Fold:
Amino acid sequence: MTSENDKRLEIERRIQAYFDPSQSKISFGDKGIVKKELGFDLPLSNLIGLVGAPCDSEILVELVDTDTIPPGFDDPENKDEILPAGLRATITNKKYIADKNVVFIYFNSESGTVRIYIGTVDFLSRNFGVSGVAALMTRSILNWAQNMPPGTRKIDQLQLMAAGGRNWGDRYTTKERWIGYNVWPKCGFNMELHPTTTEILPHFPKFPAKIGSCKTVRDVLKLAGGKEFWTAAGDGWLMDFGVFDQASLDLLDKYLLEQVK
Structure:
């Protein structure tokens, strides 16, 4: 049986093997855009690490305005997915990414911090040879976010659209079901329950027990039968991960350890 310490060492090895920033190339749409958006410059290795690029990726960083994308289902609050203004990293990789990954890094004036929005993740997971690739990417990004160089700003939050669920349509390209709403909570992301979920809770008075008192996805998943309920009836939306939130970090580490046999 593999010890927990050995498993942690294996997780570190996998991150180094698959997300080593020294193995990727980065280019910029214009000069000085990192300092213009964030207020400071970053070594290239840090920037590549913060966007979660797998080894041998090509990354184009551009300064973009806010954009919106219609959601994957008819949101009752009539919301669109808002892509933040800031640095947009478009990541391509012939071996590990089907089309492209897109990650945004931007300064949030309200919090006075830098934040990361994971816009698109399209890994060819089978080519990694290990399970839990999304979790490895998340842990790799966090390693860089938690260890920013002196003279920079704090990164306090990751956010993404956890697509999928009862009311979502199929994926636009493959016509498969979206699975993000089920995957990302395992990686430590969380959100308040979407209105399409809360409105059906009264129809489940007995099972899962206490489902009516749940406010977040994490609350649901803690219940006996909660995972089954969420898979069948939940709807994903914007999920957050506090970079220094211990509960989120513990869930991510637990999931990563489970992937090492």
User: Anything to note?
Assistant: The first strand starts at residue 25 and ends at 28. The CA atoms of residues 21 and 245 lie 25 Å apart.
